[in-house]
Structures are given as structure tokens and as C-alpha cells.
Amino acid sequence: MSLTLDPIHLGAVRMDLPHLNGPLPGPRARAAIARDAQVVSPSYTRSYPLVAQKGEGAMVEDVDGNRFLDFSAGIAVVAAGHCHPKVVEAIQQQAARLIHMSGTDFYYEELIALAEALNRIAPGDTAWRVSFGNSGAEAVEGALKLARYATGRDKIIAFLGSFHGRTMGALSLTSRRAVQRAGFGPFIPGVVHAPYAYCYRCPYGQKPDTCAVECVQHIENTLLKTISPAQETAAIVVEPVQGEGGYIVPPQKFHDELARVAHENGILLVFDEVQSGMGRTGKMWAADHFRITPDVFAVAKGIASGMPLGATVARAELMTWPPGAHASTFGGNPVSCAAALATIALLERGLVDNAARMGAYLMDRMREWPARFPIVGDVRGLGLMLGFELVRDQATKEKAPAMRDRIEELAFERGLLVLGAGDSTLRLSPPLVITRDQCDFALDTLEGCLTKVISEA
What we know:
Radius of gyration: 22 Å
Shape: globular
Number of strands: 18
Number of domains: 2
Helix content: 25-40%
CATH architecture of the largest domain: 3-Layer(aba) Sandwich
Strand order of the largest sheet: 6-12-11-10-9-7-8
Structural class: alpha/beta
Strand content: 15-25%
CATH topology of the largest domain: Aspartate Aminotransferase, domain 2
CATH superfamily of the largest domain: Type I PLP-dependent aspartate aminotransferase-like (Major domain)
């Protein structure tokens, strides 16, 4: 099925597809943006002038009544869609009963129930313990602290292109963009970075089917024998699918070798599942695709469909730190826990499966784009964590960030919300509730944008 860019169906405006009232941004949006410029931190990155007012499912309406199809899901957060009625009901009921009590000092059943649920759905077959925070950065901070505490070692290996958050520990692991680190040093000591398995742009010039996983060999043969000695290295922290770095899916042997090196050297393997977890990849965790069980993993974003919540989940035998060693006043807030429990129920009752189906449907058409559009260099992803990389030349693979940004802008003007990742990649990370018609609209829109950008070149 192919839908036109004017989403009119049988003479009526369809509520599940975009509808624009006029040029963007509208008058109320312009006024809000002007107010924002006077009082809000200029460090925030706004790719286009969307001023959201309400959302439902995969649709977002702005303050001028323009309706957009959200293929960013609030930066991969609203797993169950915007304002899913089951999540809203859980939030409202919990807010009427108990908003806050601080799970670090008292007990309440919602926090216990969510820890039990995470234990049940976690990758692998092992017992887990959970420490709650408010965000992905806090979840990573907890993993970093636990790795050092549990091993008695101080050094950490992370990866180039990674994004783990902006708090000081998480930022020390992050190596995505210079602007994210500039002016904030010195960072925590003991962190070193290795190349990620970015096969489209392999730093060693290898091909996935014939490489010897040189990126892991660099860790084993160089880092562990020089600046991060094995006996001093607490953890290897890795995104199983790299998110902000460009939605990069590494080959199976990368994770196999990484797990082997970690195990043989007594190093903890920490997965950052903040963006890739909670069903986004068509399985509950990206780890499930690679059949790897990490020692510790961080989860946030999609866990509570928009409510602030993060969790550090670790093998039970590792999380033995004493009372007071790590805690968070608001972590595991009762309302956020209720939203998370409702979200997990929805994921298990069909949304993870829908992510797999709709992701495959999108990929079936997208994988033809490099042959159809000379500025598309690579298409990759799992489930509804999909990306396509823009290049100026497919042979040289010269990055095309300006073209990527132009497509992002054109998509917004046509009612589709997408965001960039990496230097020249556009990511597709819609809510897991999207339909085939919505996928068709997104594909038609992006193909129209690609055609337009090619004509402008």
C-alpha cells in the first residue's frame, strides 16, 4: 500500500496520519519559541520548531493544531505510544493513592513489583537485583559505581561513538561528539575508549564476513596489556546496538568475542540498553538478539512510556553493596513504577511483536534505498531501531550531514518527525504501536524527501 503525502481518506481527515493547517511554525509556536529563547538553557538541541501540545499513540499535535506522525517517540521513550490509556490510567490511579515515599528509606509494593518484573523479563537465566534512578544517565552511573565496587578495580573500557549520558561519570564514558565533553574536564580517571564494530566504516578496513574482530583484538592485545591492565579493569561498557552513534548493529562475533575477553579476564560486561531495550529492537532486549547475558545492564527511556525512571540491573551476586552505598531519593517513584508496570504488560501482550513486524515491514522497503537513491549509503537496524546513512558518494562514503539535516527539515514540513544520529544518519524509532499505514506514510514521505534533496544537489 502506498499513501499520498496528503493524508485524506474518503473525504475525511484521518486522525492516525498527519494533517497540517499551514506554514510551519504557526503563530502560537513562534510565540512559544520566542519565550523559550529568553529563559531556557541554550544547550538544548532543537532540530526543528515543533512545540508539542498533546500526543496520542504515534501522533503529536502542536500548539497550532498541526498533527505530526512521531517517528522519534520522544527520543525512543514512549514505547507504548503517547498517552496510552492503560499507562494514563495506571498513572492517575497511583497519583491518587501515593505519589512519593522514597524507596531508598521506606518500602512500597510498586517498587518491589517492578523489580520483580525486571527480574522476570531480564535477559538470560539468572537472579537479578535492581537499583532505581531517574534516567538513563543515572542507570549508567549506578552500573559504573557497582562495577568498581564489586570488582575492586578502577579502570573502565568504553567505545568510540558511544553515548551514555551527560552526568560526569556517564559523560566520561560518552565519546559521541566533542561538544558534549568540551569544557567539562577533567573527567573521571581510568576510562579508555576502543573502536566500535561500525562495519560500514570499519576503522581497520575489514569486511564483516572476513574480519577477525580487530576492534576486540585491540582491547585484548593492546588496552589490557598497556593502559588498562586486565587485573585493573572493572568493566567493559557497551551499547549492544549503538544508538546516538548512528544506530549501528554490530555482528554477532563482536559480542561473542567481547563476552569471551571479559569472562577470561574477570571483567564485568555492562550493557547500556537505555535506547535499545524495552522491546525497541523487536525483542525485549537487544542482548536477546545476540544471545549474550551481561553482568550488569542499564535501562531507562522506554521503561515507563514517558515517566522519568531508570534502573541499574545486575546479577544478584554482584549487587551486595551495603545500605547507603548507592541510592536516589526519587528513583523508583511510585507513579513512575506504576507507569512502568503498565508498559511492561503492554509490551508482553503484543507491542514487542508489533515492533518486530513493523520493523521488518519498514526494512523490506528501506533495504532497496541504496540502489534507488545514490545518497543513501547504508540501511541498518533491528525492529523499530532503524537508521539510514547519507553519503555524498556511495563509493567514497563521504558523509553528508547537511543532506541528512535537510531531509529531517523536509520531513517535518510534511508532517513526519525524525531525528538524526551519528554524523549523517537518520534514525527511525517510532512508538511500538505504529501501524502499517503509518509506516507507509513515513516511507513515502522519506522517499519524497530523498528525491527532493537529490534534485537540490
